[in-house]
Structures are given as C-alpha cells and as structure tokens.
Amino acid sequence: MFSFLKSKPAPEPELPAPEQAADAPRDAAPDAARPGWAQRLKQGLAKTRGRLGGQLSSLFGVGRTIDAELFEELETILITADIGVDATHALLDTLQKQVRRAGLTQAADLHVALKQALVDLLTPLQAPLDVTPHKPFILMLAGVNGAGKTTTIGKLAKLYQSQGLSVLLAAGDTFRAAAREQLQVWGERNNVTVVSQDKGDSAAVIFDAIQAARARGIDVVLADTAGRLPTQLNLMEEIKKVKRVIEKAAPGAPHEVLLVLDANTGQNAVAQVRAFDDALGVTGLALTKLDGTAKGGAIAGIAQANPARPIPVRYIGVGEGVDDLRPFDAHEFVNAVFTA
Q1: Could you give the count of Cα atoms lying within 13 Å of 82 in the half-sphere of its Cβ?
Q2: Residue 27 — very low, low, confident or very high, per pLDDT cuts 50/70/90?
Q3: Using an 8 Å Cβ cutoff, are 146 and 227 in contact?
Q4: Per-residue pLDDT averaged across 15-40, rounded?
Q5: Are the beta carbons of 254 and 223 closer than 8 angstroms?
Q6: Distance CA 325, CA 150 (A)
Q7: Of 166, 175, 180, 307, which alpha carbon lies 20 to 30 A from 74's?
C-alpha cells in the first residue's frame, strides 16, 4: 500500500536512532558562524589539494626551469592524483604546446598554464540544471550502492525549496527499508511529501508519485532508485524499466537522469558513467563526498572520457550539511584545489 508522508509544521521531528540515521540530514550552523561556499569548498577539497596542489607547488618551485624531467615528474603527480591517464596526457600535450608557443622557460609559468588548462578541460562540464521548463520537472537519480543518492535527494529538495519551488520525493528504493526511512526524515525536516511503499515495485512507486505531483501542482519530483552495480545486468534491466514507466507516466520524462558518483571511487567513476549512460542516457552527474577523499582529480578523467559529448556535472558535494551540495563551477573548483 502506498503512503503519503508529510511533516507536521510544528515541533522538530525526532531523528531515528543513530544506527538508523548515519546519513540523516545535518542542519547547517547559524549563518553568522557558517563559512561561505568558497571557503567550504576549499575546506572540502583539502585532501585533493594536499595530494595535487601541494605536490605541484613543490614541483613548480622558484628558480626551476622547464625541461623533460619536469614533465616526467608532472605526469607522475597527475596520474597519482587520479587525474587519469588520458586526461593527464591531454593536459601535458596542451602544456607542451603552450611552452613552445609562448616560449616559456620557468616552471612557475607552467604552474599558471596548468591551472588554466585544467579550467579549460572542466568548463564543458559546467552546466547548471534548470528545473523550470516542465511542471512537474521529473528528476530520476541512479548510481551504485552507497554513492549517496538518498542524501543527495534530501539536499536537492532543500536547494530547490530555497529557490521557491515545491518538491515531492518518490522513495523508489524499495529494496532498502533504511532508504525509505532516510527519505522520510528529509521530508519531515523540509516539510516535503514523500511517496513510499513498504514493498513492491520501484516503477510503481515513482509512477504514483508523478500522478500525485500533477494533482497537487508540484514543481519538482525527485525519484530515488535502488543502488546497483553496472555488472548486475538484471538490475540494470530493471532500472531501464523504471525509466520506461516514467516516460509513460509523463511523455518526455524523466527530464533529468542524474547519476550520483562517490568521489572516493576515483577513476572507477569514469566506468560507472559509461555503463549507466549506455543503459539510461545519463544527462547529468552529481559528484559527492569530495570532502572525504584525495581523489577529486577524477573529475578531469570524467571530462576527458567523452569530450565530444561531455555529461555535465550538475552538482558537487563537499560536506554533510544540507547546503553542502552546490552547482559545479570549474573556476571555483580549480581555484580551491590550487590555492593553499
């Protein structure tokens, strides 16, 4: 049986027991005590900056000249920072052309050139998501187990509400009871309706949520799905079915297929993008948990994997607060990695 859960406006809802709420939303600190986004991004990328930015600063030390040995060291640093082999070679090729074209001789100049080359590589991924062209705008989330889909849904709900939009959550992960409970906590905190079902079919839950959103004039439907590995062919076929049902419920939908990626997976994220894109036609990415890994450079590998049709990184997550998920900006990201 389907259930429609909506929070009560008054007292703050109780959270589940700690063991059930490991991924429950954490309220942000008061504005006066809360660092701005640029500072939080810098703090969140501290491990990536330590691996990449710190080593580059040493490599491009004052007085060092550009030579073949420097390029060899640079190649090693980039690959070990999870930039990826293809992206590393593309960046080195760009730098070597810049050295010849501009007659660069000092390593410090190469530092500046590398920063710009990385911005140029990542800029095609920068495409903020506009959820206003359709009502309801149906956003389907997918990803492997543990990538952070359910938490991302909660944060997106808060983000869209801050833009004055109404939101409905579809608890399409019918395999994991904790996922439904987690969504209900988010729904209570944000005063958002959650459509769920104790057992049964993910596609049916999402279909029902779309009908409810239409009846209530909701702006955005965020549809959760169960985590699955690309190698689980039966589960990949199942998620294709979920997408087909959404298309039947609302022709032209889902309007966004958002693949949630855990930054801790490093270059494995590139393979995940390829597999889910083949199955679903992914239209956007959300890169989460950047604050817990030194592998943030993997975003360059994602950019290089399909330069002819880059899949935008819609959002990046750098913390557990409700407002620690923001649209991706290439300049902000690179500056946070390179600036000590």
Answers
A1: 22
A2: low
A3: yes
A4: 55
A5: yes
A6: 13
A7: 307
In this structure, the number of other CB atoms found within 10 A of the CB of residue 52 comes to 25
Smallest Cα–Cα separation from 186: which of 70, 320, 308, 73? 320
- Asked whether residue 30 carries a pLDDT value surpassing 90, the answer given is no
Q: How far is CA 34 from CA 27, 247, 323, in A?
A: 11, 41, 11
CB 317 within 8 A of CB 152: yes
DSSP state of 226: -
- Under a CB-based contact definition with an 8 Å cutoff, are residues 221 and 210 in contact? yes
Whole-angstrom Cα distance, residue 119 to residue 332? Answer: 9
Integer Cα distance of 189 and 184 in angstroms:
9
List CB contacts of 28: < 8 A, sequence separation 6 or more: 34, 321, 322, 323
Query: What integer is the mean pLDDT of 58-69?
Result: 87
Q: Which residues of 99-118 are buried (b: 16+ CB within 10 A; e: fewer)?
A: beeeebeebebbbebbbebb
Tokens of 147: 């990538």
pTM over the 0.90 mark = no
Tokens 């911005």 sit on residue: 119
Beta bridge mates, 141 = 258
Q: Are the beta carbons of 312 and 127 closer than 8 angstroms?
A: yes
How far is the C-alpha of 248 from the C-alpha of 287, rounded, in Å?
29
Please list, in sequence order, all residues whose beta carbon lies within 8 angstroms of the beta carbon of residue 287, skipping any fewer than 6 positions away. 261, 263, 269, 299, 313, 315, 316, 317, 328
Residues 122-171 have pLDDT tens digits of 999 999 999 999 999 999 999 999 899 988 999 999 999 999 999 999 99
Query: Which residues make Cβ contacts (< 8 Å) with residue 219, sequence separation at least 6?
Result: 131, 132, 135, 136, 137, 160, 165, 166, 167
